[in-house]
Amino acid sequence: MSRISGAEVFGVRVLLLQAPVSIRSPHSKLSPPLGLAYVAQYLIDRGHSIELLDLNVTGFNPDRIKSRLKRMRPDLVGVSSHTETYPNALAIAEIVKEHDPAVAILFGGPHASILPQEVLAHPAVDYVAIGEGEQTAAELVQALEGGARRDALAAIAGLGYKADGEARINPAREPLDAADIGRPARQLLSIEFYEDAHNVLTSRGGCPYRCPFCSASQMWGGRRRMRPVEHIINEIRELVQDYGAERVFFVDDILTLNARWLDRLMDAIEDSGLAISWGCATRVDRVSPQMLHRMAQTGCTAIQFGIESGSQEVLDSVKGIRTEDALEAVRAAVAEGINVACSFMVPFPEDDEETLAQSFEFMREIQAAGGRLLISMTTPFPGTMYYDQADSLGVRILSDDWRMFDCKHVVMETRHLSAERIESLTEAMASNLGLSKTA
Which of 103, 312, 357, 413 is paired with 181 by a 20 to 30 Å CA distance? Predict the structure, then answer.
């Protein structure tokens, strides 16, 4: 294949890179970058030459990146990042431009989708894919093959680009039909190096709830699209046959949101004859003892509940669930032999020392009921209410270093609690519960 600038092109060479975290911790549990792998397979299916490098696995070694660039000679480099990995994504872009300024650079992932103007302001970034990246990346590649004419770029929905030194943001793209969502290119990944290797996405569109600490609703608009059950079962079968999977984890925000669809999935798991166990995440008000019993019967061995706080006053404002429902869900799941993890966050804008004491006491009840605790620091990510409306909520954001936005550091304080008090209360609570601060 010749370079894009050549007269004859047989597909474009694209190098996809997953920006790594700066600080390894239990919170940064290593999982395959499915979003990037979906883009990779979509481009492969259209005849392009794709390589994918997850720098969380290989480590952030500039010499290794330069060696890959020299060997592959890519026409386009796509970089995916979250907020905490965005500074490393920019460093990657600078390495690429230093190697060859002619290589086009496309940024994607949650941070770029939420803050495309900021991302395009960096001189090393040429394009931004906003939201789902498959079609946007494929149409960009086609436009690059045609010389990246301005009219062609302006016609690509979901693309951010530069023109006359200014950032241009095209209208949003209509999402893929659920039946057209293909497979992620797992063959490009070193699956054996991942802790949670066999992850499966059953839907697109994220979560319909609008929790103020989460950017999913802004990222996806709450338009949930369920993949056909037979597609999911076929993907699981491939994981079993090709990768030796004995367990899969459904990485959807709320797997149990649609109970009828979940019943169809569990029927299909039973009918498939596949000897697998599975896990998922959901809300405590989206399960029942009957549902949990059926889940356990079909192989569910692990579930994560997002509880977030043990103060009912706080839950009323941020989550809309009840503490008694949370405790009942944990007990019901544990009774079915399901390993239960419960996530909590500290603090919320409404928290004071009294509500934190209530939350810590409720965590003890969760532990006594058999739930495992996962505690993180509340982080005002871009796209959340806590970031966009910080002043009106009495939130003071303490850092503009995106690397600190990893849910392990105190990066906000509230009208009731200073950063120092948040630190001391959380450390005391974690010690009393036998946990690290961000278990």
Answer: 103
Residue 166 has phi, psi (to 5 degrees) of -120, 150
Q: Going residue by residue through the chain, which has 439 residues, state the pLDDT in tens, using 9 for 90 and above.
A: 335 544 344 579 999 999 999 877 654 558 999 999 999 999 999 999 999 999 999 889 999 999 999 999 999 999 999 999 999 999 999 999 999 999 999 999 999 999 999 999 999 999 999 999 999 999 999 999 988 888 999 999 999 999 988 999 999 998 888 888 989 999 999 998 898 889 999 998 767 888 899 887 666 655 778 999 999 999 999 999 999 999 999 999 999 999 999 999 999 999 999 989 999 999 999 999 999 999 999 999 999 999 999 999 999 999 999 999 999 999 999 999 999 999 999 999 999 999 999 999 999 999 999 999 999 999 999 999 999 999 999 999 999 999 999 999 999 999 999 999 999 999 998 888 888 655 4
What residues have CB less than 8 Å from 120, skipping those under 6 apart? 128, 160, 161, 162, 167
Regarding pTM above 0.90, the answer is: yes
Q: Where are the beta strands (DSSP E) in 246-370?
A: 247-250, 277-282, 300-308, 339-346
Quote the tokens at residue 71. Answer: 């060997």
Characterize the bridge pairing of strands 13-18 and 49-54: parallel
284 token code pair: 């405590």
SS3 318: helix
* E runs forming strands in 89-139: 104-108, 127-129
Beta partners for residue 161, in sequence order: 127, 168
Residues 6+ apart with CB under 8 A from 371: 305, 330, 334, 340, 341, 342
Specify whether the CB–CB gap between 262 and 255 falls below 8 A.
yes
What is the C-alpha separation between 113 and 383, in angstroms, rounded? Answer: 9
Residue 346 amino acid letter: V
For tokens 């969380």, the residue is 56
- What distance in Å separates the CA atoms of residue 104 and residue 127, rounded to the nearest whole number? 8
Residue 318 has φ and ψ, to the nearest 5°, of -120, -20
Peptide bond into 347 cis (omega under 30): yes
Please, which residues have CB within 8 angstroms of residue 98's CB and are 6 or more apart in sequence?
none
**All structural domains of the chain:** 13-169 (3.40.50.280), 198-433 (3.20.20.70)
Cα angle for residues 70, 110, 57 (degrees, 5° grid): 45
Distance from C-alpha of 324 to C-alpha of 45, rounded to nearest angstrom: 49
- Rg of the chain, C-alpha, whole Å: 22
